[in-house]
Amino acid sequence: MSRRRCVATAPVAGMLVALVLTATPQAHPGAASDIVIEIDRRGAVDLLLTTAPEPLLLKLRPLAPSRGGAVPAPPAGDRPLAERIARYRPVLVDHITVTADDVPVALAWVALEDPDHPDDQRAGKVVLRLRGAVPPDAVALQVRTSLIFGTYPLIVRGEQRPETIEWLQGADRSTPIVLANPRRDPFARLALDGVRLGFIHVVPKGLDHTLFILGLFLLTPRVRALLAQVSVFTVAHSATLAATAVGVISAPGTLVEPLIALSIVFIAVENVVRSAVSRWRLPLVFGFGLLHGMGFAGALTALDLSRSNLLTTIVAFNAGVELAQMAVLAAAAAIVRASALQPAPYRRFVVRPASLAIAAMGLLWLVERVTA
User: Fold this and answer.
1) Which residues, in sequence order, are bridge partners of residue 145?
2) How far apart, in whole angstroms, are the C-alpha atoms of residue 300 and residue 317?
3) CA 66 – CA 118 distance, rounded (Å)
């Protein structure tokens, strides 16, 4: 390859390397844990932390000695997990921090629940309930905990404020939660939060969906063919996102997530073996879009949104997803355009290696999700 071609393909190669290096086994936010904050007009704050018991125990055990041995680690035995976790009661309270205008809010233990009803979305998890009170003149709250692994949603509800959602990572501190702001349109706030949630579910936290969109782009960057593929994908995932979020249809994540990974592998492999859009490409993309819509909906159904806010959040979330997809396509188009490659070298030095890398990532996710 000539020096000129090396220089021209450098941006594309950089994009590919960045995608592979930033790949993570969990390609988009999961719903293993969440925190719900409920604020009433008198300033009472109820905090509900829902999470899987085994990871929580892993977090608690090394934290107990920090209190001078006040909470000895209980033997495993056959004790129920909730009972074993309850032995760490002081540690649990100490490692959940709520501040009002940077002043700590005293939290009191209320209960530790162990839902076991099969229809309860929280079945198999534990629900920790704490309660506190904020000063009447407080403007904003912030929340932080070191008890949750990975990414989780913080859902805030109140009698004088719209419902909001923020995704946090591990021990991240939340952005300020405004207690009341009558001048702010609740509908606008809810819609903006939905758009933001949908956008980040693709960029940066939905690498599997991002790679699928790039797979559609790579085979042909021609506007007409690309627009046809993206349009049928959008129609399909919008339909199943809405239908799944409102409970009309459902499918277990153990089935949907591996199939999403398989869709990425299929599109990428087809990019390698074919040089043009086949007649069955659009129907396949539509079918794959149905799967991706169910995957998108998982981020909403796990949030336990109130019915009055669900429709607004679905529409706004979908808009955020579309904006993220357009951002991915625009960035890819700008990079390819800057490289100024002719069709033959573009296919040889961009389409094939990038598609092979995407297929490899999809296979990794497929194996991990099938064996998880």
Assistant:
1) 96
2) 9
3) 37
Q: Is 83 exposed, middle or buried (0-12, 13-18, 19+ CB in 10 A)?
A: exposed
Cα Rg of the chain (Å, integer): 23
Q: pLDDT tens across 8-45, in order?
A: 454 454 444 444 444 444 444 445 789 999 988 788 89
Q: Which residues of 345-356 are buried (b: 16+ CB within 10 A; e: fewer)?
A: ebbebbbeebbe
* Closest by CA position to 220, among listed 277, 301, 297, 303: 277
How high does pLDDT run on average in the chain? 81
Average confidence (pLDDT) per 10 residues, the chain, 372 residues: 48 48 45 86 89 88 61 51 85 92 91 71 83 86 90 84 82 84 60 85 88 92 85 94 88 90 95 87 94 85 68 89 93 86 86 95 94 80
Q: pTM of this prediction?
A: 0.61
Q: What pLDDT, on a 0 to 100 scale, did the predictor assign at position 6?
A: 47
Q: Which is nearest to 187 in space by CA: 166, 165, 161? A: 161
Separation between Cα atoms, residue 77 and residue 364, nearest integer Å: 36
Buried b or exposed e, range 247-271, using 16+ CB within 10 angstroms: eeeebebeebbbbbbbbbbbbbbbb
Is 84:76 a contact under the CB 8 Å cutoff?
A: yes
Give exposure, 284-294, as e/b (b: 16+ Cβ within 10 Å). Answer: bbbebbbbbbb
Q: What tokens does 220 get?
A: 């042909």
253, two tokens? 């994540």
- Give the list of residues 6+ apart from residue 83 with CB closer than 8 angstroms, or none: none
Question: What are the domain boundaries of the chain?
Answer: 3-28+203-371, 34-183
